[in-house]
Amino acid sequence: MLRKPPSLHQASSGLGMTTSLSPHAAGMRGPSQGQGAFTPLSQLTLGYHGWRSRVRVRVSRIWVASNPNTGEEYGLRCLLVDSELCKRVRVPGSERLKHQLVEGKVYALSNFGVREKLDKYMACSNGLVISMGAQTVVNETTDHTGSSIPLHGFEFVDFGDLPSRNNDRSLLTGRCFGN
Questions:
Q1: Which residues contact 119 (CB under 8 A, 6 or more apart)?
Q2: What is the pLDDT of residues 91-145, one digit of tens each?
Q3: How confident is the model over 46-101, as pLDDT tens digits?
Q4: Helix (H), strand (E) at residue 59
């Protein structure tokens, strides 16, 4: 059974630590880092990031999270790539953002929050989640400045390590099949 994620205010009160988001973060900062206009995902900290922090990310996947037993929807979830950071969109801003965000496109985001990840079934192993809502500013990047951001990121597991993940609910473990 899925549980509702804690609100941004519950997760971030009094916390101010810096957490690396992914082992891929250092190599995927792109051309914007030298300009100082965008914050790499690996440098985000817990709490609310107003106009002072902007990130440039590619939307790899978008889906609606719901409880399969009750059908209750918890809002949008996205997998972002700059370093494989998962983010969630809170219900108040979901309708606007659901129609604004497109898989594969690059966006500049500001006015968002950062909280700790949930304990179960995460799509990536980083420790933080971006929370977006009605106040979040989303601008599509139409120039080629985001061309260095890949569409997907992967965290492979050695085949011999798969049995040890059998009852591990912290991360999703997928399968790949060839022809």
A1: 169, 170
A2: 345 677 778 889 999 998 999 888 877 666 565 666 777 888 788 888 998 887 7
A3: 888 777 788 888 888 888 878 889 988 877 788 788 744 544 444 345 677 778 88
A4: strand 47-66
What is the spatial distance between Cα 67 and Cα 78, in angstroms, rounded to a whole number? 17
Instruction: Give the CA angle between residues 45, 30, 111 to the nearest 5°.
Output: 40
Domains of the chain: 8-165 (2.40.50.140)
Length of the chain in terms of residues written:
179
**DSSP summary character for residue 8:** H
DSSP letters for 90-154: -HHHHHHHHHH--TT-EEEEEEEEEEEPPSS-BSS--SEEEEE-TT-EEEE--SSTTTTS-S---
Residues 6+ apart with CB under 8 A from 115: 6, 8, 11, 12, 46, 128, 129, 131
Burial of 82 (0-12, 13-18, 19+ CB in 10 A): buried
> What is the pTM assigned to this prediction?
0.62
Please say whether the beta carbons of 133 and 90 come within 8 A. Answer: yes
The end-to-end CA distance of the chain, in Å, is 34
